[in-house]
Amino acid sequence: MDIQTIRDQMPDYARDLRLNLGSVLGASGAPGLSEAQIWGTALASAIAAREPTLTAAVERHAREHADDATVEAAKAAAAVMGMNNVYYRFLHLVGDAEYGRMPAKLRMNVIAKPGIDKATFELMSIAVSAINGCGMCIESHEKTLRGEGISREAIQSAVRIAAVINAAAGTLAYERAA
Q1: What whole-number distance in Å separates Cα of residue 122 and Cα of residue 118?
Q2: Which CB contacts under 8 angstroms, 24+ apart, belong to 61-64?
Q3: How confident is the model at residue 1, as a pLDDT?
Q4: Catalytic positions, written as ranges
């Protein structure tokens, strides 16, 4: 299955998603991002959104537009952020600063050595963090990206990809279950 087929499966009530899937996954709809960044971010987002058909279609396209290292980094970003977003969202929401002073004792070596450039990995990470709703992680990744010289427009593009992929995944899951 490919992205066009996924778009075609969007019901009429999700027409906006159909249109957005056509725009945010291209250079003109994702200003500031390279093709590899677009598709790496889309793949990390699809994995985080947990809809297998969409994830498979996005991975197929990602392999056409990005190298193997970027595809593997997207998978790693989704995996490590899946863990970190839960942990750091807990720290943010629990309201007890003592937890924040305790060591996390969670391995997250891939963040330091993702196998691709740091900015691209951070774009994937902020997208997954947005899907998972971890404000603490979103703030951290945004600060890192800005420190790397990434524009707000590029960061917005990554989060827009995450938003559309996440909504498409939810719609597909609902339609299959209905």
Answers
A1: 6
A2: 61/2, 61/3, 61/25, 64/39
A3: 82
A4: 134, 137
Q: Which of 24, 13, 16 is nearest to 158 (CA)?
A: 24
- Measured CA to CA, the distance from residue 126 to residue 45 in angstroms comes to 10
Q: What's this model's pTM, rounded to 2 decimal places?
A: 0.96
Sequence-separated (6 or more) residues with CB below 8 Å from residue 62: 39, 40, 42, 43, 70, 71, 74
List the chain residues with pLDDT less than 70.
Answer: none
Q: Which two tokens stand for residue 142?
A: 């945004």
Which segments of 25-151 does DSSP mark as H helices, in order? 35-49, 52-65, 68-94, 97-101, 109-112, 118-132, 135-147
